[in-house]
Amino acid sequence: MQSNNYWSSTSIANNPNNAWIVDMNNGNVNNNNKTNNNYVWPVRSGEWDFPMFTFENLHASYLACRRRKRATVNALRFEMRCEENLIALLEELQAGLWRPSRSVCFIVEKPKMREIVAADFRDRIVHHLLVERLEAMYEPVFVHDSYACRLGKGVHRAVLRVQDHIRRAGRNGREPLFFAHLDVRNFFMTIDKEILMGLLRRKVRDTRLLGLAEKIIFHEPAKNCIIKGNPALVQHLPPHKSLFHAPEGKGLPVGNLTSQFFANVYLNELDQFVKHTLKRRFYARYCDDFLLVDRDPEALAQAREHIREFLAGRLVLSLNEKFEAVKPVNEGIDFLGYIIRPHYRLARRRVVNSMKTKLMEFERKFVTHEPGMTLLHYDYGQLEKLRAVLASYMGHLKWADTYNLRRSLLERYGFLQYFFSFDAPNVPQKKREIIENRRPDKEPGSQQIAQDSAGHAGLCPACINGVFRHEKNVIASKAKRSRMCTAGIATARGPAMTDKEPEWVKTTTSLMQMGESGGLHPPDNLCAGRAKGKIRPRYRFNEMLRRVSSQYFYYARHFSDAAVFVRSGCFYEAYGKRTLAIEALGLNRLGANRRKATYGFPARLARQYAAKLASQGMSVVFVGETDRSMGKIKVRLPEVRVMGVGANNHSPLRGSGEKSNAIARPKSVAIL
Question: In terms of CB atoms within 10 Å, which of 17, 155, 472, 523 comes out highest?
Answer without folding.
Answer: 155
